[in-house]
Amino acid sequence: MKRYKGLLLSFLIVATIFVGCSSCSNRNEEKANIPEVEEEQVPDHKYTNPVASYSLPDPTVIQGEDGYFYLYATEDIPLLPILKSRDLVEWELIGTAFDEKSRPSWEPNAGIWAPDINFVGGQYVMYYSMSVWGGEWTCGIGVATADKPEGPFTDHGKLFRSNEIGVQNSIDPCLVTHEGKNYLFWGSFRGINYIELTEDGLELAPGAEPTPVAGTAYEAVYIHEREGDYYMFASIGTCCEGANSTYTTVVGRAESPFGPYVDKAGQPMLENHHEVVLHKSNKFVGTGHNSRLITDKNGEDWMLYHAFDVEDPSGRLLFMDKIVWDDEGWPTVKGLQPSETSDRPLF
């Protein structure tokens, strides 16, 4: 009997050692497959760029009546993504502006690019571009509306195509409301123009014609009013060549939203003169197509834009930086480069 007990005890010891070693081996294999990344601890009052690490080109943002910020971007995410945030730093993807049935289709095989979100006449009005690469005379600008910033959006079709309005490469819309009237600014490297819209912003005003306001160096314009002056933010260079992208954010200033916009020396944007707001760094390139500026509780202005990470240039990521206004009232980003870590805005 003792012999059998001894054999049983020996068996149990061997089995325990085997199971323990096997378990240990599995854990070591699992550990070997998990890259050990040393995460940098960021204080609560700081944030790091990018604020969204997936492709969100050409961002446009608005604060809803619920206090949240809503962001829309070019259709790298199909059907045009909508994101939501309390603070411009932490973003949640909550849906899309369209579904398969409601998605605009007036330009065959085209993507939806460069939306511009606004609140007009008690509803959310989103202008958007439809284009294919190289389709500079068939591309155009359309408009959609929603009762809530999270959608769903109802498409109202195109406002115009390039070949209808007589402006080549009619993309990148931006709405400006001035003295109770709506004006659409738009264009991409073939001249920036504006035109008057109807009161609801859904059609061209009767008899309205395009008027040139800036030269052929620019696209993705946004007009910002500050202390009685108007600032035309725009992008120059190449937007979409990954680590080789040269996109740069620039600005000119005027006393009227309709210009003339000039640089610090008084030279006109109609002749492609401007001041630099933001350019590439060693780590991030293609810094452009900024959103409207958002002012926080401290009175600081913040700008969202897209850029590539040179280590993984697979998408145009979402960045944010504070605008610094100099003593002469000109805007820049600190150091003219994207920040890596910065203080959060206060909302």
Structural write-up:
The protein contains 2 helices and 23 strands. The protein has helices spanning 2-33, 162-165; strands at 46-48, 60-63, 69-72, 81-85, 92-96, 111-120, 123-131, 140-146, 154-161, 174-178, 181-186, 192-196, 211-214, 219-226, 229-236, 248-254, 275-278, 284-288, 294-295, 301-309, 317-325, 331-333, 341-343.
Mean pLDDT: 91
Most strands sheet? 5 strands, antiparallel
Number of strand elements: 23
Order of helices and strands: HEEEEEEEEEHEEEEEEEEEEEEEE
- The number of distinct helices, counting runs of at least 4 residues, comes to 2
Summarize the structure.
The protein is mostly beta strands. The protein has 2 helices and 23 strands. Strands 18, 19, 20, 21 and 22 form a 5-stranded antiparallel sheet that branches. A 4-stranded antiparallel sheet has the order 2-3-4-5, with no helix packed on it. A 4-stranded antiparallel sheet has the order 6-7-8-9.
Could you outline the blueprint of secondary structure elements for this entry?
Blueprint: H1 2-33, E1 46-48, E2 60-63, E3 69-72, E4 81-85, E5 92-96, E6 111-120, E7 123-131, E8 140-146, E9 154-161, H2 162-165, E10 174-178, E11 181-186, E12 192-196, E13 211-214, E14 219-226, E15 229-236, E16 248-254, E17 275-278, E18 284-288, E19 294-295, E20 301-309, E21 317-325, E22 331-333, E23 341-343
Antiparallel strand pairs: 1-23, 2-3, 3-4, 4-5, 6-7, 7-8, 8-9, 10-11, 11-12, 12-13, 14-15, 15-16, 16-17, 18-20, 19-20, 20-21, 21-22
List keywords for this structure.
347 residues, mainly beta, five-stranded antiparallel β-sheet, four-stranded antiparallel β-sheet, 10% helix, 38% strand, globular, disordered N terminus
